[in-house]
Amino acid sequence: MQTDVFDDILCQLLDDELAMLRTEFAAIMNSLNNAGAGFFLIGDVAVAEYTNPFATTELDIQLLNHSLSDAHQILSVLNLDFIAHGNQLIIKSKQLSEREYDYRIYLHAPIHFVSQHYKQGRSAKVLGIQGVPVSDIQTLVWFQLHWMLAGGRHCKLQYKVHLAQLFGAELFKIEEARRWLIESSNASMISLFNKVVSDIENAKLNPGLTWGEVQELKRLQHEPSPKAETDFLLSEKNGGIPRR
């Protein structure tokens, strides 16, 4: 799927706001490229490139061969707002800081496993910028599991939905993914993968979420009980979330 994903999922932006965000994104990409800093997209935008465009306010960039401090130094000349947060460096858009949903770019520190196993994925057109590198699908599946292991309960539903989308696209078969993980990952990740696959198959999890459904999922992620998430994803009356 070679689509301008961000033009679809940032439809809430006015034309002049989108142009300003494009300018910021282009400056970041150009600076990283000029410095020889290897990177590729992960997260929502990368998943959308392999499946269907959907709503997000985040853009995740995985660094390959430069540290976060290197990236900060490279980008410091652009007069951006930076927030250091663990293994991430968050760039908050100055142009859109007054909006209810802030649009942010996350730079992720290099991970040894990723550097060893990453294969060149797709090139996407993002915010009007051609040739932006996107994660290969194996690495993208690994990241969803990695984040599930690292995050709390409120994070896990989002990544489970992402995995349902990726396997639903049938570009990476479940058994093929299991064999790849057995060869390359630890027991905790393989065990989680098997549980997630079982949950997806048993719940008939539907990956085709609309903007309204994504917002509802965000709200449910903060509920005290996981039952609300299950009720939303699987309704006996309508057979689950309607497909788009």
Automatic annotation (TrEMBL):
Top-level taxonomic group: Bacteria
Region (Disordered): 224-244
Protein name: Nucleotidyltransferase
